[in-house]
Amino acid sequence: MDGIAAIEARIQEITGRLNALGAQSGPGGRLGAPKDAAPTDPTSFAAALAQAQDASGVSTSDGTLNKAGVDPATWAKDFLTRLGMPVTSENMRAIKAWEAAEGTAARFNPLATTQGGFSGETNFNSVGVKNYVSYEDGMAANVKVINNGLYGPILAALQRGDNANDVATAIANSKWGTGHLVERVLAKTP
After folding, report:
1. Span 167-177, mean pLDDT?
2. In the predicted structure, residue 181 carries a pLDDT above the cut 90
3. C-alpha to C-alpha distances, 116 to 51, 128, 144, 155, nearest whole angstrom
4. Of 82, 88, 133, 131, which Cα lies nearest the Cα of 110?
5. Most CB contacts within 10 A, which of 33, 69, 116, 165?
6. 8-66 tens-digit pLDDT
7. Where are the chain's structural domains?
8. For residue 22, what is the enclosing H or E element?
9. Helix, strand, coil tally for the chain in percent (to 5)
């Protein structure tokens, strides 16, 4: 499973770069495409990623990368799976809102953890939020820190899986440092 997540992250990175190149290329989305070129194929790999769903019907990708370099939906699903939590629409809303609330560009670290102990990690900021060298390291760091004994109420709300606002409240009442930002993000999103 770990290898699959790393491959998916790399595919998303490449897809994001290709999409960026396509946006710069003009009509048709292809570099050097003539002005009257047909639009890109809607059955492309990027479109397939954007429509991906797991067996429960919960959307697992919107085809875009956030500032941390990960697809928010895919990262949320992988995070919940690694934690052994149910992948429900409410849990996905909560984790994606958490990522948005952090809004960090710390590489492979959308929840902005300061968890150390990974080869090649660097400090993203003066607080000690880390940049990780791989999707897997960032995932492992976030899983490790949330399981360190300080975040039981967050884990309990995720285990129930039925209310993103309960997860947000647990985050706000924890030592994580995000405060009430997840609650604010959820209040602005359906």
Report:
1. 96
2. yes
3. 35, 9, 10, 21
4. 131
5. 69
6. 666 666 555 555 444 444 444 433 333 333 333 333 344 344 444 343 444 445 568 88
7. 54-188
8. helix 2-25
9. 50, 5, 45
Instruction: Measure the CA–CA gap between 107 and 124, rounded to whole angstroms.
Output: 8
Structure tokens at 109: 């670290």
Helix axes 181-188, 89-102, angle to 10 degrees: 120
In this prediction the pTM is: 0.69
Task: Report which secondary-structure segment, H or E, holds 179.
Answer: none
End-to-end C-alpha distance for the chain, whole angstroms: 31
Question: Tokens 């429509």 — which residue?
Answer: 51
- Interval 128-138: pLDDT, tens: 999 999 999 99
Measuring CA to CA, which residue among 188, 148, 153, 147 is closest to residue 172?
A: 153
